[in-house]
Specification:
22% strand, seven-stranded mixed β-sheet, 10 helices, globular, alpha/beta, single chain, two-stranded antiparallel sheet, Rossmann fold
Amino acid sequence: MVLGRWLRKPMEKYQGRLCGCAPGTHALLEEMIRRHVAPCAGVLDIGAHSGALLLRLEAGGFTDLVGTDLDPTRFDCPGAKFQRMELNRAFSADFDRKFRLITCADVIEHLDSPRNLIQEARLLLEEDGFLAISLPNVAYWEGRCKFVLKGELWGFGQGNYRVQRHISPVTFEQMEMMMQELGFAVVAAESGGSFATPLRQALTLPLWGPLRVIGGRRVLGESAVFLAKKAPPLAELKSPVHYRDRWQGTPDRIGLEDAK
């Protein structure tokens, strides 16, 4: 236990509220949002937990705040409304309004269908609205080591499934393509946040140093963070090249070139 405190940071708090994700993730989300979105009214935080992210945004000038979560017991953001909500369904029907900004920090990995969340969030956004999402970064350097050794994804092992219900991993490229297909233009995609202490970072430098050179900055953060703007869906992504003609009933020669 003593050694653990030297190697792993405690859960982060903001104004006394638990953030519920890797330390630094909320700060990166806030910085990314403020870089591209002017302070505005109409913010919905999906899976708000304690309301810590809403408090950050409120301090940055955002107003008309709404938080939702399946767990109503920890939400503590006096300047925001709260609505209990189940996300594994068509939850956009619960609102009779639109939002300028929707945030969703470390929630999508718990859901039966990440695509459903993105589609439902789009229905709740104004035409020029933004969606900000974070989730476990399976490209994190420790994740790359785990995959080499066990063939399993970091953050989505049996323990994560049983204790946290981490059931839906999404890679950077998958998220970017999925957002484009479902009607978003990706504005920014970065990694950040970590439970690693400076001592742990120093001790593991021989492992993450080479991976940083090979894989870039995305190997360093435990969270993958995305900001996207509502846009027309990219229809071609719904029609894969290898099946496009045949789905319309037109024969082709794809995959048959070497057939006898």
